[in-house]
Task: structure prediction
Amino acid sequence: MITLRQNQIEPVQKAIDFFKEKKPRPSLIVLPTAWGKSILTAYVAKNSTDKLLVLQPSKELLEQNYSKYQVLCGGMAMNSAIYSASFNRKEIAQITYATIGSIKSCGQKFKEMGFTKMLIDEAHLYPREADSMLGTFLSDSGITHVLGITATPLKLQTNYDMYGSRYSKLVMLTSRSKKGNFYKDIICVGQVQEMVEYGYWSKLRYESVSFDGSLLVYNTSKSEFTEESVKAAYNANNINNGIIDALDRNKDRKHILVFVPSVREAIAFAKRYGNSAVIYGDMDKKERAKVIADFRQGRIRTIFNVRVLSTGFDYTGIDCIILGISTASIALYYQVIGRATRIDPCKDDALIIDFGGNVDRFGRVEDIVFEKGTIWRMFGTGGRLLSGIPVTDIGKITHTDVSRIEHKRAEERKKAVELMPFGKYKGEKIVSIPRGYREWCLQNFEWGTDKRQLKQSLIDSLQ
Result:
């Protein structure tokens, strides 16, 4: 039997209530790494009297979520099934656990069987456009209730400045874009600090090594550093030897993940350093499974990898992470550090050794907080804004700046345009115009400074 912790009760109930609503909009629940998202999916499934589809991005997560449901039901969950080619199973029951690749063309089948509700684990990983696998399935199936769960409710959005140059912003999944926003609301947030205060996160110790990032160069979309510049900075800062020294200095650490810039470096390290192995994307699946099994059993102390183990690897015993890479992605940074946050009786804390300037760039993950003002935003250490701004500006804007901006916008709203000045609804109150038309206007009009008040009025009417 699973007993809910105090910080799990509200999100679980919010999720259960969501599926009982008559006409809910696609929504999200935000839960930190190590919160126990498989527990939420299990409780929602157990309390569902309707047909429910539980979607996850990988075989490993499907197995984890399905197993948790079996445990909650005492092994008597006869109303559940798995629909996934990875399992060589394509069965449908009241509660069906699936991967999107296996059901992408089965929307009509699930519609005919009466499925109207879907729970999506790791919701940030799915493209939501109409022509995506998920978009196609949702359109064909007629699903009416979609609830996503994620620790990182963020998406990368490409924009162009006034000179036509590309730049990228990491925005909340609920933020509007030219392609629209599939998820409309965040109905519940479990903050990272709650996990820390209740003692559900392992204590983290940070060791930031002096780093010269002058060689780092953003890619053409300004969303991440180029692989070449990351490698150049790696070599210039002598990180290779720094990693070996860190491993030698911390003999007490028993389960270590090391992130390096390339597969070649990872393989070279594994050959050079004893009691270690390498994992990379194209690795044989059986060989990879053996490495992970040996790591869990303590037969291997260190795994060297590039970015393969940044998500979906949830071994609680990890007590050290060494970042030999630099990243401009707060989502990747959070996911990597998250591998060490789980509680384990055999560790007192987890050591984060950063050679790539990442902690200085983003701050401590324990300080991450999601907050709703006029829109949802993500903040970090020292109140620095981490979402909704160009990736290149992270660290330059704080909570104080945001408050000032929101105050200015509030003043502008007092001058809001009430009546539509042109178009098919000219003369009508903006709030009375069909929502779809207002959204269309925002996505398709050319918004010059002369129409700023109208644009803001349309935005405010959609809040």
Remarks:
- The chain has a mean pLDDT of 90.
